[in-house]
Amino acid sequence: MSLTGKRALITGASGALGAAIAQRLARDGATVLLHANSRPESVEQLAATISAAGGQAECVVFDLRSDEASRIACERMLEGGPVQVIVNNAGVHDDAVLPGMRPEQWHKVIDVSLNGFFRVTQPLLLPMLRTRWGRILNISSVALSLEVAARGVTVNAIAPGIIASPMADGVFDAATINQMVPAKRAGKPEEVAALAGFLASDEAAYITGQVISINGGMI
Question: Are 91 and 64 in contact (CB under 8 A)?
Fold first, then answer.
């Protein structure tokens, strides 16, 4: 698919994965906005490589842990037009395995990976929505599941859809659920609990590093 005319932000473009994604999107025609923080020279080199191959690239250097720096950076990016592709790839690579992690390391991981997602996606989202076209890609990690797999520990995520509860009942009426959910009903808390019970059992010992949706077929 051609991305000609689209602007794409890739956070953490100084890393190998971010760089590869940026090069692919540039080949597909996007103008890529290459984010880095501690290694600006890496994205400068990447931008030069992309430009030499006939692509369009710009460098955006700022600290995703800073509300103010992120806000200013997003404002500057939007001066060139809406950003219609956001690849949230930035992550902290100097952390430790969980048993040996200090609280300040944990907070840094969360601040970059989770809060950093908010700091760029939130200000760029409304201009994206106005174009009626956008792509948001969140690059996750199976690092924890890999760390502990050899010790018989699994790490999985459960992603529930509309599950009957006082909170959901106040938001989704029967007609909405019928339209949104192929199964034509809300899920039951017990059904989520059954999945949790299975994942916690010995029978699920070979399932790890997965995000498992339980949503009645919602896409």
Answer: no
Q: What is the pTM of this model?
A: 0.78
Task: Identify the bridge partners of residue 57 per DSSP, sorted by sequence position.
Answer: 32
SS3 64: coil
Per-residue model confidence as pLDDT tens digits over 127-183: 999 998 999 888 877 778 888 889 888 888 888 899 998 878 888 999 999 999 999
What tokens were used for 155? 């790490």
Question: How many whole angstroms separate alpha carbon 153 and alpha carbon 39?
Answer: 35
Q: If you ran DSSP here, which 8-state letter would residue 94 be given? A: S
* Phi, then psi, of 183 in degrees rounded to 5: -75, -5
d(CA 78, CA 60): 12
Separation of alpha carbons 184 and 54, rounded Å? 50
For tokens 């992690």, the residue is: 101
The angle, 0 to 180 degrees and rounded to 10, between the axes of the packed helices 16-27 and 40-52 is 30
Local structure of 136: helix, strand or coil: strand
Closest CA to 191 of 216, 174, 171, 219: 216
CA neighbours closer than 13 Å in the CB half-sphere of residue 53: 17
Beta partners for residue 33, in sequence order:
9, 58
Nearest-angstrom CA–CA distance, 167 and 177: 14
Return the beta strands (E) in the chain as ranges: 7-10, 31-36, 56-61, 85-88, 135-138, 157-160, 211-214
